[in-house]
Amino acid sequence: MTDLLRRLVRTPQGAIGLLLLLVLAAVCLFGPWLAPQDPEKIDFLGRFRPAGAENWFGADQLGRDVLSRLLVGARSTIPMALAATLLGTVIGSVVGTASAYLGGRWDEAIMRTIDAVMAVPGLLLALLLVSTLGNGATNAMVAIAVAFAPGMARVTRSVALNVRNQDYVKAAIVRGERGSWIVFREMLPNVMAPVVIETTIRVSFAVMLFATLSFLGLGAQPPASEWGLMVADARQYVHQAPWILIAPSIAIAVTAIAFNLLGDGLRDAMNPRNER
Amino acid sequence: MSLSWILRRLLLIVYTVFVVSVLVFGITQVLPADAAVTLLGENATADALAAIRDRLGLGDPIWMQYLRWVGHAVTGDFGLSMRTGQPVGPEMVAALGRSLLLAFAAIALMLVVAVPLGVVAAVRQGKLADTLTSLVSYLGVAFPEFVTATLFAMLLADTLQWLPATGYVSPFEDPWGAVRHLALPVLTASVILVAHVSRMVRSETLDVLHSDYVRAARLKGLPERTVLTRHALRNALLPVVTIVALDVGYLLGGIIVIEEIFAIPGIGRQLMVAITARDLPSIQAGALIMSATYAVANTLADVAYAFLDKRIRYD
Amino acid sequence: MIPVTRRLFLSGTAAAVCALSSGTVLLGPASSALAQTAAPKRGGVLRISVDQAASVIHPLRTRVNPEYLVAELLYSGLTRLGPEMTAEPDLAESWSPDASLTEWTFTLRPGLTFHDGSPCTAKDVVATFTAILDPKTASPARTNVGPIKEVVARDDRTVLIRLQSPFADLPVTLAYTNARIIPAAVIEGDLDSLSRTAIGTGPFKLVSFEPDRKIVVERNPAYYDPARPYVDRVEVLVYPDRTAEASALISGDTDLMMATAPGEFQRLGKASGVKALRVPSGQFLNVNMGCDQKPFSDVRVRKALALTIDRDAMVGFVAGGYGTPGNDSPVSPAYHFHKEMPLRKADVAQAKKLLAEAGYPNGVDLTLIASDKPGTRTDLAVAIREMAKAAGFRIQVQTMPHATYLDQVWKKGNFYVGFYNMQATADAIFSLLYTSDAAWNETRWNNTAFDALVAEARTKTDEAERQALYAKAQQLMHEEIPSVIPVFFDLLAAQRTYVQGYGLHPRGSVFRLDFVSLGADAPKRG
C-alpha cells in the first residue's frame, strides 16, 4: 500500500490530484470553521458586492458571502458524489461478479439486459429516477448510483473473467499456493486495480452529474449551498455579478480535475507496465 | 462479419428497446403527482381533477395501459400529449431530428479538432504540445455543460455579440441563421467530446507507436512519415469509431442541458419539459426514442468497426 | 357618446352609460391615450418573447401568462380590461344593471363573426358561460367570473346575466382571462378540439402552434374593429432562459419581451435601441399562516412575525429594488381602492415581547415551505428566516417542486410562501384569498367582520361608500395579519424603441397587442 502511494506520488498527475483532494477533504471536514463569515447571513448593503476585502469572492443577491457558502457547500457536494459512486460501484460489482460467476446463459441474459439499460443515457436515467423518488440531494445520490451501476457491472465482470484466466493465476495454482493467497495476493489486486481506477474517474462524473441535477432543479434544494445549485441561482444575475457564478463553477471543475488526475495517477501507479 | 452476426445485433436492438420500454413505462407509472394536478395547477378542484383524469384515461390497470401503449407505439402512435393535446410521436421525431443535427455537428467539429490534437500530442509525447493538450483535456472534462454553456454565451453572445444567444432556426427556412444559432450549442457540446476523444486518440496512438509492427516498420527503414500515416494512424483511429459511438450516449444525455439552456426544441428539452409537467406519453416516447437511437448508433459503430477491421473475427 | 368621468369608469359600474352607436370606430378612451401617434402604421411582423411554453391554448383552460397572451390574441370576451383596470367594451358594446345589481343586460356588437365565418350571437355567449360554470370543463374562470346564477339570451344581440347576489364589479370581472367567448357549435361538438385549433372572434387568427417554440397568428380581416390590429402577424417565441431572452431582444431577434427579471432589467435599460418598461403592480409574495392552528391562531404570534420584517430591505432582497413595500394587505397602491397607511416598521423588541406574551418566551421553531417556482419564493423565505431570527423565530426553510407544493402544501399548510398576480379589483383579490368563502381560503382567517365589509362593498355603487368599506377591510387585515405581505413587485419588461402603442399592464396577464404598431425604423420581416 505504501509502495503504491509512493509510486502514485511519483506521477505528476497523482501528486497534484492527491494534493487537491487533501485540500478538498479539509474543506469538507472543516468548512464551517474555515468560513470567514456566517454563510447564511444576509446583508442588505452587501448585495452583489464584488470580490474585495469584505468578501474575498464577492457576495450574492442576498449579500451572503460567496466564499463562506462555497466552503460550507463542499459538504453537500463532494461527499454526495463520492457516496453515489461508491454505492454504484458496490451494486455494479455485485452484479458483475455474480454474472461472471454464474456464467453461460445467465451471464448472457444479465449482460444483454445491462447493455439495454445502458442504452438509456445516464443523465436521462438519473432524471427519470429523481422525478420518481422526489427531488432532493439524497434521491439524486441514489439515482446517480443506479445510473452508474450498469457500467460498473460491465467493468467488474470483464475484469473478473480476465483475471481468472490469467497465466499468473494458473501458475500460482500449479505452484500449489494456498487459495486465500491466490485470491488476495494475485487476483484481488488485479481485479481491484481497474475497478478502483474506474471508480475514481467516475467520481468526477458524479460531481458533475450531481451539480447538473441540482442545476436542473432536481438535486439539492435551495437554500442549500450545493455548488451546482449556486451556479443555477447565479445564472440570472450573470450580467450583474458574474463572480457568484464563476466561483462555484471553478470549485466544481477543481473537484472534477482532482479526481481525474488521481484516477490517471492510480492507473499509472498500478500498471507499471504502462509507464512510458 | 457474417449474416448471422448482423442478425444477432439486430435482435439485440429489439431486446434493448423492449427492456427500455418496460423500464420507462414502469418509471412513469410510479411518478408522483400526476399530469392532471400539474395541468390544472392552482385551479385543481376535485371535480376538475376527476374530469381531466377521465379525459386522459388514467383509470385502467397498468398492464392494460402498457400493452395498449406498446401496441400503438409499434405503429408510431405514442398518443396525445397530456400537456398540449398534440400527437406525441411526430413531435418527438421532429425534436429528435433537431437534436441529431446538433449531435452530428458536434461530432464533426470534435473529429476535426480532437484527432489531430491527439495524434500530435502522441507524436510529440512529453513536449509542450503534449502538455498543453492534456491540460486542455483535463479542463474540458471538468466543466459541466451548464457552466461552459453559460460562459460561452456570456463571452460570444453578450460581450462580443458575434452569435445569437439562443433559439433555434430551421436550416430549411434560413440556412445561415441556422448555422449561427447552432454555433454556441455545438461548441458547448463538443468541449467535453474533444477533451475525451483527444485523450483517447493520444493513448491509442502511443500504443500503436510502441507496438511490434511499427517497430518492425521502422527497422525496415521506412521514413517516419510513412510509418505514421500508413501503419500507425490507421490502427490508432480504429478504436475511435467505438469511442465516438459511446460518446453519442453521453451527447444524448448532455444535450438535455444544452437544449434547455439554448432553447433548442430538441428531444432533450422536450423530455425535460415533459418530466416537469408529468406528461407521461411524452416522457415515454422521448425516453424510448432517445434510447433506441443510442442502441442503433452503437450497432452501427460495431458494424463499421467490423467492416474497417477485417482481421477481427466475430463469432 | 356621453362624457364619462374617470372616477365612474374606474368603479367598473359606469358602463351603463358607455353605449356606443354602431358604425363608430371603436377606440376605448384609454386606448386612444395609449397610442402615441395619430395614425399607427399598418403592417409588419411583431415578435414577442415569453419565458415559458404556452402549452394550453384552450381559451377556457389557460393558466399562465404566455397562454393568456395567445388566448387574448385569438379570442374576445364580453368586456376587456383597460390599462386603468376598468371594463372596456369588447364583444359587448354596452351594458347596464338593474337597480338591485343582480340582473345585468349586455348588448353585443352587430355582425360579429368567428374565425370560421359563422356568426357570433347571444347563443354562443350563453353556451360559453354554461361551459365555464360546468365543473367538468375544469375552467379556472368558474370561480372567478362572479356570482352568476344563469345566463339567458333574450335575442341574438342581448344577453341577460342573473346573479345570486348583488355585484357591482361584474363588467370588470367578466374581462377575466379565461372568460373568452367560443362557438356554441364547438361546445356541443368537440370542446377539447380547442386545444389544437382556435375558433374565436379575436383580432388574430391562428397560423401555427408549436407550444415550446413558436406560435404564429395573423390578422383577422373580419375583426369587429376594421382599424385594428395594426400589425399583420404576431410571432410568440418561447425562450425558457431569461438571460437568453434578454439577449435576443438586445440583438434585435425579438421586438418585445412579455416580462423580464430584475437581474436583466439594468442591462436592458442600457442597451441601445431598447426601452425598458416598468409598472408598479399588485403582484405580491406573502407568508401564509394557518390562523386556525397553533401557534398562528394567536394574533400576537402573527404580529410578532410581521414586526421582524424590514420591508424596505425586503424590496431590495426579493424584488431587486423594483417594487414597493407591503403593509400586510393585498391591496397595493396600484389598486383603485388602496388606502394609505403608515408602513409597519421593524421592531424586534416589541416582537420578542409579543411572542413571550403569546406563551413563547424561549422562541418558537417553525418550518417555512417555499415552492421552487418562482425562485423569489426561496429568497423571501431565507430573508425572513434571517430577519426573524433575532426575535426568537427559529425558521427552517424547505423548498419543494411546485407540483408537490400544490398537491401537499398549498391551501393545506400552516406556514408557507404564496405568490399571486394582481387582480382587477380589490373585491377580486379579497374574495380570491381572504374571505371565509374565498376560492383559495388558505389562511383560514375566517373573520366575519371582514367578510361583512367585503360583501357590503359589492352591493354599493357609490364611490365614497365603497372607498370607506374597502379602507376598513384593509385596516383590519393590517391589524390582524392573516398573511404577511412584505413586498409588491413592479412588473418589468422591455421593447425595441420602434414598437409603438404598447403599455405594460399592471395586471400582468393583459397585453392588448392589437393596439401595437411598428414604427418606420422597424426591420422588415416576412
Shape summary of chain A: elongated
Low-confidence stretches of chain A: none
Averaging pLDDT over every residue of chain C, what do you get?
A: 89
Strand coverage percent of chain C: 15-25%
Give the class-level CATH name of chain A.
Mainly Alpha
Shape of chain C: globular
Number of DSSP helical runs of chain C: 16
| Poorly predicted sequence stretches spanning 5 or more consecutive residues of chain C | 1-37
Structural category of chain C is alpha+beta
Considering residues with a beta carbon less than 8 A from a beta carbon on another chain, report the largest interface and each chain's count: A-B, 41 and 50 residues
CATH topology label of chain A:
MetI-like fold
At the third CATH level, what is the topology name of the largest domain in chain C?
A: D-Maltodextrin-Binding Protein, domain 2
Percent range of helical residues of chain A: over 70%
The total domain count of chain C is 2
Number of domains of chain A: 1
CATH uppermost class of the largest domain in chain C:
Alpha Beta
Keywords (chain C): Signal
Domain Solute-binding protein family (chain C): 87-427
Pfam families (chain C): SBP_bac_5
Signal peptide (chain C): 1-35
Description of the molecule:
The complex is a heterotrimer of chains A (276), B (315) and C (526). Chain A is an all-alpha fold. Chain A has a single domain (2-275), classed as Orthogonal Bundle (MetI-like fold). Chain A has helices spanning 2-10, 12-34, 66-102, 104-118, 122-133, 137-164, 167-175, 179-215, 227-235, 243-270. In chain A, α6 packs antiparallel against α8 (179-215) and α9 packs antiparallel against α10 (243-270). Chain B is mainly α. Chain B is globular and about 85 Å long. Chain B has a domain at 89-308: MetI-like (MetI-like fold). Chain B has helices at residues 3-30, 35-40, 46-56, 62-73, 88-123, 128-140, 145-159, 175-209, 212-219, 224-262, 267-277, 280-308. In chain C, 57% of the residues are buried. Chain C contains 16 helices and 19 strands.
